[in-house]
Request: fold
Amino acid sequence: MAKKELKPSQIQAQIEAENAAALEALRKRREKEHRKMERSKGSNKQVGKSWKNDIGIFLFLTILGLFMLAPIYIAIVSSLKPVNEIFIMPPRLYAMDPTLDNFKDLFVVANNSWVPFSRNVFNSIFVTVAATLFHVVFACMAGFILAKCRFPGCRAINKIIVIALLFNSQVTYIMQYIVMANLGMINTYSALIFPLIASTMGLYLMIQSVGQIPDAMIEAAKVDGASLMRICWGIVMPNSKPALMTIIIFQFQAAWNSNGGSLVYDEALKTIPTVVQQIAAAGMARQGAIAASAVVLMIPPLAIFIAAQSNVMETMAHAGMKD
Amino acid sequence: MAAETQKKEILLPNERKMSFKEKWAYTRHEMKRNSMCYLMLLPFMIFFLFFTVIPVVMALPIGFTDFDMAHFPPKFIGFQNFYTMFLEDDVFIGSIRTTLIFAIFTGPLSYALSFFLAWLINELHPVLKTIFTLIFYAPSMAGNIYFVWQLIFSGDAYGYLNAVINELGFTTKAVQWLTDANYLLGCVIVVQLWVSMGAGFLAMRAGFQGIDKAMYEAGAIEGISNRWQELIFITIPSMGPQLMFAAVMQIVSSFTVDLVGRSLAGFPSTDYKAHTIMTHAFDYGWIRYEMGYASAICFVLFLAMLLCNQLISKVLGKYMN
Reply:
């Protein structure tokens, strides 16, 4: 083969290009293996594993999964059925003529006595976003401090947090009402938002997750002269993205589904769950509206969970209690 | 454990024990030094104090009064509420029984189901894992989906379940699932199980996913011969913290079950069959506005949950070590 006469610089450039290409190929291969390993984490080659077992497990889970999904499926299908199909007996499991009429009625026509449904959707969104925002900001700061700092009272507060996991807002609802009545907050947006902000579960998950961050990182930042706020928001939080996503998801769900029906009696302040309950109380005649409102209630948390499921898994892996 | 019982303070030759004033001065100094910590804790703690701590702590004092939101200040009536609760209120005793039935059936059953399902899901392909986790977690997120269950369990011939039973020829008349005192608790338990795959289930799933595979290989070398042994000797001990977390979540939801019964069987339910302690408290709190009595009921519930939590901690703690 006739070799072209190359200058030394060109030879060097050629060698460097070949090296770069080889390194690139090696990196790609390693990344592919790494990704394959990550994906297969948790699926273990163990004693007694056979494909027959796998098929059996899959079938069993599918049957159970159908049972779990059936009511949700029925709700979605019912919301798409036009009026003439809702009362066909025996009930059909599919909509022959799917239509969005139920949703349109819900939003456009004021079929809920005094305010249109869109107002309730706005209320829900406002309350949920406010509650999630405040909760995430406060829980991040508090979680970082409780996980990594020692100060008088830190152990007592940690113990109280663990005990407070037992008292979710359902149980303390009545006494919360008394507190809020004495503070004059009944029938305002604060009555809906404030009880949701101090959710103990989010704080607990945050503490467990920040506890996983190596102390050395924080000490290095302290040595470099960072203030606590800077450490919290500049170093700790970017490293706990899974936990952040998880508490956002859990808080979103809790706030979106929270029924503050006894705390506000002004129709213009009610959120979607309360309205769904009210519509459901109207009985069989409103089947389409009930189904449509339930679907509107159900879709956002599901969508957000689907989008961030892997983050949730990673956080829950550290959510254990050691005592 | 031994070190805790004999707390001997080790003193250097030139040292003496700090007096109370000195300890207090040291604490104050530390508090001033860490003032930023307290500041960052403050926002959360304010809301936590007002909406979690104070309500819980207040349950007892209010339980000693006859507070009804209309008369202020409330009158102190001593143990009257507790006396009425345990000795005169038949519905409350019935609701304790109902709550215990719920707790015994749905609690351990849901816990075992979460564990079992998480174990099974862990065997699958990663994409299937994601899908099935979503499928089993979705009901607990689905909000107010109980109207569908009312459709299914509807008492006329058009309810889904009645229609299926009639088609299959088991009976010819419609069964009143949600209003017949014999069946309604069963229906509510089924729906409660359906809704209960929540945070505890996710924790179990994550726990299974995080078990070190080297342990399984070591176990296979040591001579573990089937999956059952592997489960008992390797899997469960590695998942201790997650099991504990899921147990606490399960206790909370078992003792405070209330919404499912109210939405499905009505408020009140036939013969008070689906009337749990929380439903009873709600009844007295929101329908009759007897907040004093409702607070007393909540206080009794808190005590029960705390005791149960301590019990479970001890049992699982022994097992974890």
